[in-house]
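@here heads up, posting the sequence + SMILES for the thiamine diphosphate run so it's all in one place. Ping me if the SMILES looks off, I pulled it from an old spreadsheet.
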Amino acid sequence: MRHVISVLVQDHPRVLNRITGLFARRGFNLESLAVGTTHVPGLSRISLVVSGDDHTLEQVEKQLNRLIEVLKVTDHSEPHVERELALVKVHVAGVEERLAVKDIQEAFRARVVDVAQKSLILELTGDSKKVDSFIEALRPYGILEVMRTGAVAMSRGERTLKVREKREAV
Amino acid sequence: MKGSEALLKALEREGVEVIFGHPGGAIMPTYDALYDSKIRHILVRHEQGGIHAATAYARASGRVGVVMATSGPGALNLVTGLADAFMDSTPVVAITGNVPRALIGTDAFQEADVTGVTMPITKHNYLVQEVNDIPRVVREAFHIASTGRPGPVLIDIPKDVQLAEFTGTFDVELDLPGYKPTTKGHPKQIERALDALEKAERPILMVGGGAQHAHGELLAFAERTGIPVITTLMGLGAFPGNHPLWLGMPGMHGTVAANRAIHHADVILAIGLRFDDRVTGKVSRFAPHAHTIIHVDIDPAEIGKVVRTHVPIVGDAKLVLRELLKGAKPLKLAAWWRELEEWRTRYPLRWKPRPHLQSQEVIRAFHEATGGQAIVTTGVGQHQMFAAQFFPVSRPRSFITSGGLGTMGVGLPFAIGAKVARPEELVIDFDGDGSFQMTLQELATLVKYKLDVKVVILNNGYLGMVRQWQDLFHAKRYSEVYLADSNPDFARLAEAYGIKGVKVERKEDLMKGVEAVLSADGPVVAEFKVYHEEGVFPMIPAGGAAEDMILEHPAEREEVEA
Ligand SMILES: Cc1ncc(C[n+]2csc(CCOP(=O)(O)OP(=O)(O)O)c2C)c(N)n1
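bot reply: prediction finished. Complex structure tokens:
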């Protein structure tokens, strides 16, 4: 099963190293990782996409929690918003292709962010499935480059990833 | 004050009395400051010796062990020992020098990315970039190493930081928002545990290294309930090895009684152990009749990691046992004990007597001669298992061995660390001829500090444990395990260091040899030439289960049953 996990960490040097090292060492399957700062100075938030069975996921969470710089780990099993940003550079040989690509762009509500003689860069945000479909739709035209950020996620509603006083027991 | 002086002051404030270490360029400012410090330094001959000694110091004393090394090669020589301490949850702080900040990342002389290398084998590590951070980092390192699930923490300090002028404060508050170990067990779960135990017909208590500090509570709990107790290799001594409730060690070379008890148990209370594969064998066949497994551990990640747990209790063994003790009642276990007693008397640990001198009888002889009153350290191999089987210790922190990593060469440096921690105790290192030769240079450390350690080498002329596996599982193809053609004369080797050497080759000289070792005033290296083809039994082959236990070498089985 695919899981999206959010991790709140102190943004010390090497903290990412610790996290990726943990995944490598314990044989957890890490599909993507996205990191950015938060509104609190010194705290960063990481979104991980991981696949595995319940036992593996339980271990992923527990092992992440063991890291000294990890403040909080949430597996987004509840309703959540998930987004990924993709930049796709696609080959456009002539006017016909350009129009066809434009149709796709509109259908997906993507944006054109760069126009060149023989290529376009399109920007899309959406959940990972939407990005997948977008790329598939563009594939026949000749994709030159794809850059995806990996999924980021946030729980809907009241649930937040704020720091608790005590670490949860099991 | 320089950074190096601030470092030592911070260490003093943590109560550090002794540091094991080896100097070098990048740590020289700290060694310079050490020259004026109250802290005692034990100069080892190899950094691996230093980290193992610090580990045993911690294990024997219950305090944090400290080791120091220079950058690059010095620090990297700590790697095996850090991994060893990590696997066996031992509180150690390792301090390493690094090249000056400006040279970090340039492949400078003696530079290695030590924090990178040690990340997976330390509980946490630091690269100190700011001189004024030193007190905070030291404070945190000791706190992290010694609380929660203990473990090694490394502090890497660039040389220029050691030399920089310190203008900070030593009164630092601990601020580790992501580190708040749970020490008190959840009352609901404790209630459930007591409930399950009360209804149990065949309960057992399994105890690991995480309960070494809880021996008093453990004893009280076991005696109150009458539950049979099994201690893992790391748990040896946490419960007295001479107590009628004790069934011995479980697992690959455990006792029949302990393994059968696990196999037939309906409720298992496991405290401070991590269900290592040497203990469980094949997990799917482990404890097949246990409908309730209660697992007490301070590390939540250990609970449910290997075996399914029905009652998880995150907490410190001592505190949880205190809570359990409040509700503990005497259990009616007469029928269960009849079964256990039968197994225990029918299958005691024993060996097949031979005309040759045997490791088991050497160890037994030392046990008898000392009344079991010693701190035992071991190398890794057959002799380690024999020591665990035939030198049952009755006090906590007195069997110090490499459990999780199985590191050959720990015996002598472990003995050094234990002796420094508890100088009033008799310290015996039961070592193998192979294991001993991995760190024998530390004999020099014994000499330098006049450490009265008794090294007993059980010389079978082989890498015995590997030979045993080749015997049983590789059709006796003894690939690269023969040592006797090139072993030194260990007694003469000792004498070259100015240490008393003893050599015993014949069975009839055993007692004389034991006497010579124990009566010597000062360190001894004794070589006992033991039967070269001995095997450790009972044995559950790797990946097997309790039912697959073999009691004797297959070729000798008939005689045993007769
Ligand atoms: C550093 C290290 N290298 C290799 C091994 C694998 N190993 C385990 S036991 C053993 C043989 C140990 O021989 P010895 O110390 O002579 O003890 P014996 O088994 O003969 O009692 C070996 C090679 C190990 N545990 N540690």
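MO: Residues 84 and 151 of chain A are 5 Å apart (CA to CA).
MO: One more: The beta strands of chain A are 2-10, 29-37, 43-51, 70-75, 80-91, 111-115, 119-126, 143-148, 152-155.
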